[in-house]
Amino acid sequence: MKQKGQSILEIIITLSILALVLGGLVIVIVNSLKNSQFSKNQAQATKLAEEGLDAVRSMKSNDQCSLTTTLGPYYWINRTPAVWGNVSSLVGYYNIDSAGCNLTNVNINSPQVLPGNFFSRQIILDQDSGAGGSGRIRVTSIVSWNDISGVHESKLVTILAP
Fold first, then answer.
1. For residues 103 and 96, is the Cβ–Cβ distance under 8 A?
2. 3-state SS string over the chain?
3. What does the domain layout of the chain look like in residue ranges?
4. Among 3-17, 106-120, 146-160, where is mean pLDDT lowest?
């Protein structure tokens, strides 16, 4: 009888240890998958932020592209009113149109939802206050997304000069 009691106790201890090991393994796998998904989303968000900056850079050299505010359109080159003469009045939040040629002034709480409805992007234009910053524009592209861990963002900045 004493032998049977020890066997049951050994089985219970063995099962408890096995449950702890398997539980730890599950936690490690879940965290690994979560981190992998976060890394994938971060890389995609950075790519979309780069695309936003590239779109603004390409607009700068296209005389058909404009920057539209409540006061009307401003043009990057060869047309008036020009972006470069009015930098201080163009500070604000913008979305890129679907053709990638125009920026439209929007409310701070109106980021552009990108295809797939998972990421949103907002372009921020501001005067550059760095060395030699007179007349230069600081362009910030922010791409954000929301997952079970909360809200995340990828932010890239570039400076445009006339």
1. yes
2. CHHHHHHHHHHHHHHHHHHHHHHHHHHHHHHHHHHHHHHHHHHHHHHHHHHHHHHHHHHHCCCCCEEEECCEEEECCCCCCECHHHHHHHCEEEEECCCCCEEEEECCCCCEECCCCCEEEEEEEEECCCCCCCCCEEEEEEEEEEECCEEEEEEEEEEECC
3. 2-160
4. 3-17
Q: What is the band of 1 on the pLDDT scale with cuts at 50, 70, 90? A: very low
Cis-peptide into 73, omega within 30 deg = no
* Exposed/middle/buried for residue 53 (C-beta within 10 Å: 0-12, 13-18, 19+): middle
pTM attached to this predicted model: 0.81
pLDDT at 93 over 60: yes
109 pLDDT exceeds 90?
A: no
